[in-house]
Design goal:
131 residues, four-stranded mixed beta sheet, 4 helices, 4 strands, 31% helix, globular
Length: 131
């Protein structure tokens, strides 16, 4: 009787983490996560864009978020352009399946709200899949 090896796809969620890592640490982490998982496995993560350390945001909330993180001893260390992430992920054998910009997040998740809540101006979501 032969034994069939079944490789199950894996799903990883890395929300609220990437901006606390350096770019090198982020690359190393994704590389480590995907080293031994099968094709079709995926990850969802958020990242700060290149405006993170410049943008004040609605009610200064982006600037305050950066300051509070630093004051608590966990400074935000990195931000990315979409092109940088595309290159990083491609180099690690992943493809971006979906990218949501702050405006797309607002449209999808906040458009029917009647209060002042909205997506952070500098935070994007990515769903990437191993080739």
């Amino acid at each position: 009787m032969s034994k069939a090896l079944i490789l199950l796809k894996n799903f990883f969620s890395l929300l609220g983490v990437s901006y606390y890592l350096t770019k090198t640490e982020m690359k190393s982490l994704i590389q480590h996560i995907f080293a031994k998982v099968p094709t079709g496995s995926s990850i969802v993560f958020d990242y700060a864009d290149e405006q993170l350390f410049k943008e004040k945001g609605l009610f200064n909330r982006v600037e305050n978020m950066v300051k509070m993180a630093s004051a608590s001893g966990e400074p935000m260390k990195s931000c990315f352009t979409l092109e940088e992430l595309e290159s990083l992920l491609e180099g690690l054998g992943l493809l971006i399946y979906e990218h949501l910009s702050p405006s797309m997040i607002n449209e999808r998740f906040f458009s029917n709200r009647t209060d002042y809540l909205s997506a952070f101006e500098t935070i994007h979501y990515i769903h990437a899949v191993k080739k």
